[in-house]
Amino acid sequence: MRLSQYFLPVLKETPKEAQIASHRLMLRAGMIQQSSAGIYSWLPLGKRVLDKISNIVREEQERSGALEILMPTIQPAEIWQESGRYDDYGAEMLRVTDRHDRAMLFGPTNEEQVTDIFRSHVRSYKSLPLNLYHIQWKFRDEVRPRFGIMRGREFLMKDAYSFDLDADGARKAYNKMFVSYLKTFARMGLTAIPMEADTGPIGGDMSHEFIILAETGESGVYFHKDWLQADLLADIDYASDLQPFVDKFISIYARADEKHDPDNCPVSDLDLMTMRGIEIGHIFYFGAKYSAAMGANVSGPDGKIVPVHMGSYGIGVSRLVGGIIEASHDDKGIIWPDSVAPFGVAVVNLKPGDKICDKTCETLYSDLIETSADPLLDDRDERPGAKLAAMDLIGIPWQIVVGPRGMQNSVVEVKRRKTGETFEVSPSEALKLVSNVA
Ligand code: ATP
Ligand code: MG
Q1: pLDDT, tens digit, 9 for 90 and up, residues 286-345
Q2: What is the DSSP string of 238-276?
Q3: Which fold has domain 343-435?
């Protein structure tokens, strides 16, 4: 992408309305634009990151065996009346009426919709296990939308729904999602801590929230200091028995403050850490809550007809954009992990119009396109300082800076955004450097 032909409305001033780093930086980097409270447009740079994150989520869902569908944003009220949640959901639900006076709603979540799909087609345990997911916009009329896209009213969520014959099968489905979440977040450079969460009105159910640590997080969290060791995230095959693996994680203490009881905490004061965190995912096993209410039944091997066991598994895809920035930025701007960066490398031409600089940049740019490094060429007619500051602000992992002084010795400067390290190398060595690590 050539920056001269791109739409990157960076802001020089710090926006006053933004209270936390990620919100400030997303506005300054021209990633989002507020439409109304808690509702945002995603501009080109932001959309790229949102797509990168969605794709990592999608890949790990597919690897775990879940199947992608796409359910609508607008749902009929009837299915929510069947489950009993139409009245329970309260003011967070955006209710609309169509021209025929039918009650509709903008989905805050999709348990009812997916249960309706399931009951229309599945009759036998032979079609199980089944896990259907989608990545779709949700609407919740939050009382206090804030922190930009972190707590929005309209937000992008990945939600998966598992169907099993019995509790044992449902547990396996739960474990798969548990592991897939750890892998998903690790690929984004995040250590997400699964915390036992409230299980709601039905006893015996399981639920975990996945929380990343950040000073600006909305939840207070307590956890054993072992969680700070990243090597807990060993690789694992979905086909193997995941129970021991999941047990190992669950055995390391971690609770959000509403579930932490200081008088009954198994961890010594010395080992207990307390910090703030951001909830980026939530998994839930709720058995037959919706299937029983909505008549989603299957026959088992013994011929008995039973309501199917379900679980639901959410990831805050748009919230993750902010979460990653909270976890990875400095006073100059965003520091994208390679896996979600909007562009892999920036080629900065310090002197457009200078023959050698132009030629070197063009060659680097087309070579980088060849190697799929997804380059951004800063070919704008701007002050060098402003260009370098913009690249730091938008957080591109590698910068190759081409200026007339270096060109006298046929060298360019390669900068790693994360560490600030710089290397003076020939253009061909620069190519190798950024392609090997990225
Ligand atoms: P929270 O406690 O933050 O309101 P929740 O328990 O209501 O979250 P779920 O219904 O489990 O959230 O939704 C799944 C995921 O969607 C959450 O883990 C979170 O990452 C994301 N999410 C929920 N509400 C919002 C919101 N208003 N804005 C952005 N992301 C959200
Ligand atoms: Mg909520």
Answers
A1: 999 999 999 999 999 999 999 999 999 999 999 999 999 999 999 999 999 999 999 999
A2: TTS--HHHHHHHHHS-EEEGGG--GGG-SS-TTTEEEEE
A3: Rossmann fold (3.40.50)
CATH label, 3-334, candidates 3.30.70.890, 1.10.238.10, 3.40.50.2000, 3.30.930.10: 3.30.930.10
Chain length of the chain: 438
Tell me the backbone φ, ψ of residue 245, rounded to 5 degrees. -65, -50
Nearest-ligand number for the alpha carbon of 218:
1
Structure tokens at 419: 């560490």
* Count of Cβ atoms closer than 10 Å to residue 283 Cβ: 25
pLDDT the model gives residue 232: 61
Q: What is the pLDDT of residues 181-207, one digit of tens each?
A: 999 999 999 989 999 987 655 445 799
Measured CA to CA in angstroms, residue 254 lies from 197, 314, 319, 397 at distances of 10, 19, 22, 32
| Nearest-CA residue for atom 27 of ligand 1 | 151
Tokens of 277: 């965190």
**Rounded to the nearest whole angstrom, what is the distance from the C-alpha of residue 129 to the centroid of ligand 2?**
28
